[in-house]
């Protein structure tokens, strides 16, 4: 149980990271799916993929900042702590999301860099190629990126279902922990 006066919600920075990265990841997923339906090497596929890569690399750059801030700020207390199994499930889901937020852009980077494709960031600059151009490595990066994207979609779907369950079935405070602070 939390001490009197202890916050029961994530701080403003953690909420900002959460919602910004959620929007970026959703946008990157939508763009990646959209690009898959376009003819390779043509417009608008190239432009869609440039934005997709820019967003993915942005997520990769934000992730260490988010992770370090999470370690510094910690997790807020619950007014009514969840069961041990629910708490462990939430921890596993959060660590899975952090791992996937790292692995998805890294695999995309490997796919693009090893394939000899550009690594733009919104047309401002290009990221350096840190892996050699290698077709086999690029194909491995592509396969990893494809399957990790599916895993992200599944885990995010489960995350949204868990939030809905807490908000509408259990009617507990879980949603409010990441929502902007309300009086009371």
Automatic annotation (TrEMBL):
InterPro entries: Cyt_b561_bac/Ni-Hgenase (IPR011577), Cytochrome_b561_oxidase (IPR052168), Di-haem_cyt_TM (IPR016174)
Pfam families: Ni_hydr_CYTB (PF01292)
Signal peptide range: none
Keyword Transmembrane on entry: yes
The organism's place on the tree of life at top rank: Bacteria
Gene3D superfamilies: Transmembrane di-heme cytochromes, Chain C
Cofactor(s) recorded in Swiss-Prot or TrEMBL: heme b
Protein keywords: Cell membrane, Electron transport, Heme, Iron, Membrane, Metal-binding, Transmembrane, Transmembrane helix, Transport
Entry's Gene Ontology cellular component terms: plasma membrane
GO terms for biological process, alphabetical: respiratory electron transport chain
Membrane topology: Multi-pass membrane protein
Record-linked PANTHER family: CYTOCHROME B561, CYTOCHROME B561 HOMOLOG 2
Identification of the protein by name: Cytochrome B
Organism of derivation: Methylobacterium platani
């Amino acid at each position: 149980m939390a001490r009197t006066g202890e916050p029961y919600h994530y701080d403003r920075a953690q909420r900002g990271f959460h919602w910004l990265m959620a929007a970026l990841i959703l946008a990157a997923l939508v763009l990646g799916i959209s690009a898959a339906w376009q003819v390779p090497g043509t417009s608008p596929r190239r432009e869609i993929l440039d934005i997709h890569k820019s967003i993915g690399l942005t997520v990769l750059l934000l992730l260490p900042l988010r992770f370090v801030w999470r370690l510094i700020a910690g997790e807020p207390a619950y007014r009514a702590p969840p069961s041990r199994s629910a708490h462990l499930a939430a921890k596993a889901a959060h660590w899975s999301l952090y791992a996937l937020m790292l692995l998805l852009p890294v695999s995309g980077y490997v796919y693009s860099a090893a394939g000899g494709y550009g690594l733009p960031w919104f047309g401002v600059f290009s990221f350096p190629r840190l892996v050699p151009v290698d077709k086999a490595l690029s194909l491995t990066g592509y396969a990893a990126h494809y399957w990790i994207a599916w895993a992200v979609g599944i885990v995010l779907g489960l995350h949204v279902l868990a939030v809905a369950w807490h908000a509408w079935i259990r009617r507990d405070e879980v949603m409010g922990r990441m929502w902007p602070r309300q009086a009371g």
